[in-house]
């Protein structure tokens, strides 16, 4: 019986007759494997409705999520890296920069912008992981420093969205100097009592964790984000012990006191707006206090 017997072996459709599934129509959750349409995934702010897995997104999406009507003024958008060390690995560093810029449509691994969230002014610096692993080179450090200067000058709260593999190897020492530079700028911001909120997203590691990412007035994170300095394998080999379960996850880091809270992406905008209101400069809160005192007297 031909029905129960395979007459022809295997799949015989020639490649040219195969039908392509159009790209980008469906999204499969890497955690629970639920399949949803990309439109729905976008509506869920790139999180899984079933298991709450937070997909990695970049500055384009974060700006869209945070800024009112997706309106913002981008700062220093044309800053691009030079090649101070004449660095060559599998290809020369300038070639790598140009190729990555073409592929990602970005100038470097961070974008900075001024806009409003729920009508409150905010300067946001958001890293892009798809630009050489969100690595921190001199352009990243410079753009963040300039955004902090802008915040200081205009007395607007500053928010950093970190997402990085750490320092940029191709800039070696220059890359490491960005840690000191950005930290010093943040100290000046703090002296002027301008609030700084740091959001750590998946993954925040290396020099970024060791500098600006952990210096916020509030250090917050998205669920499940990897947060650490060195990778787990390096640590395991160094201390010669097995690492605890969930090591370097946002939840583990929160439990050990390095984070203030973890926020779901859908609540992010409101929570940031609440924090800015809470951290408003003294004049405004003093004015509110006087008003409430007067109300109390009456
Ligand atoms: Zn899921």
CATH topology of the largest domain: 2-enoyl-CoA Hydratase, Chain A, domain 1
Overall 3D geometry? globular
Task: State the share of residues found in helices, binned by percent.
Answer: 25-40%
CATH class of the largest domain: Alpha Beta
How do you describe this structure in short?
A zinc finger (C4-type) spans 29-51. By secondary structure, this protein is of the alpha/beta class.
Describe the structure.
The chain is of the alpha/beta class and 298 residues long. The chain folds into two domains: 25-55, no CATH class; 57-281, Alpha-Beta Complex (2-enoyl-CoA Hydratase, Chain A, domain 1). Helix content is 36%, strand content 16%. It contains ten helices and nine strands. The protein has helices spanning 38-43, 59-66, 93-104, 138-154, 172-191, 206-209, 232-239, 250-255, 268-278, 282-297; strands at 26-28, 35-37, 72-75, 110-117, 120-127, 158-164, 196-204, 218-221, 261-262. Strands 3-4-5-6-7-8-9 form a seven-stranded mixed β-sheet, sandwiched between helices. Helix 4 (138-154) packs parallel to helix 5 (172-191). It is globular, with a radius of gyration of 23 Å. The model has no long low-confidence stretch (mean pLDDT 91). The protein binds zinc ion. Residues 29, 31-32, 34, 48, 50-51, 53 line the site of zinc ion. Keywords: ATP-binding, Cytoplasm, Fatty acid biosynthesis, Fatty acid metabolism, Lipid biosynthesis, Lipid metabolism, Metal-binding, Nucleotide-binding, Transferase, Zinc, Zinc-finger. Pathway: Lipid metabolism; malonyl-CoA biosynthesis; malonyl-CoA from acetyl-CoA: step 1/1.
């Amino acid at each position: 019986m031909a029905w129960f017997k395979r007459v022809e072996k295997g799949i015989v459709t020639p490649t040219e007759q195969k039908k392509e599934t159009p790209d980008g129509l469906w999204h499969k959750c890497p955690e629970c494997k639920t399949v949803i349409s990309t439109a729905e995934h976008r509506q869920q702010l790139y999180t899984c409705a079933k298991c709450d897995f937070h997909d990695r997104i970049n500055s384009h999406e974060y700006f869209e999520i945070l800024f009112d009507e997706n309106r913002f003024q981008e700062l220093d958008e044309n800053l691009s890296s030079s090649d101070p060390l004449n660095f060559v690995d599998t290809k020369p560093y300038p070639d790598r920069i140009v190729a990555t810029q073409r592929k990602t449509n970005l100038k470097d691994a961070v974008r900075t912008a001024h806009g409003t969230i729920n009508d409150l002014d905010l300067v946001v610096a958001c890293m892009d992981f798809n630009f050489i692993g969100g690595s921190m080179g001199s352009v990243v450090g410079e753009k963040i420093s300039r955004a902090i200067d802008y915040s200081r000058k205009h007395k607007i709260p500053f928010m950093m969205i970190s997402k990085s593999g750490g320092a940029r190897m191709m800039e070696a020492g220059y890359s490491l100097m960005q840690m000191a530079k950005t930290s010093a700028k943040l100290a000046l911001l703090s002296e002027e009592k301008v609030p700084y909120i740091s959001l750590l997203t998946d993954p925040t590691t290396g020099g970024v964790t060791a500098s600006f990412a952990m210096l916020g007035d509030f250090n917050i994170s998205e669920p499940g984000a990897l947060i650490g300095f060195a990778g787990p394998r390096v640590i395991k080999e160094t201390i010669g012990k097995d690492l605890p379960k969930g090591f370097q996850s946002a939840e583990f880091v929160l439990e050990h006191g390095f984070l203030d809270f973890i926020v779901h992406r859908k609540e992010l905008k409101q929570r940031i707006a609440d924090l800015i209101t809470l951290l408003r400069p003294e004049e405004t809160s003093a004015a509110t206090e006087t008003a409430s005192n007067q109300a109390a007297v009456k």
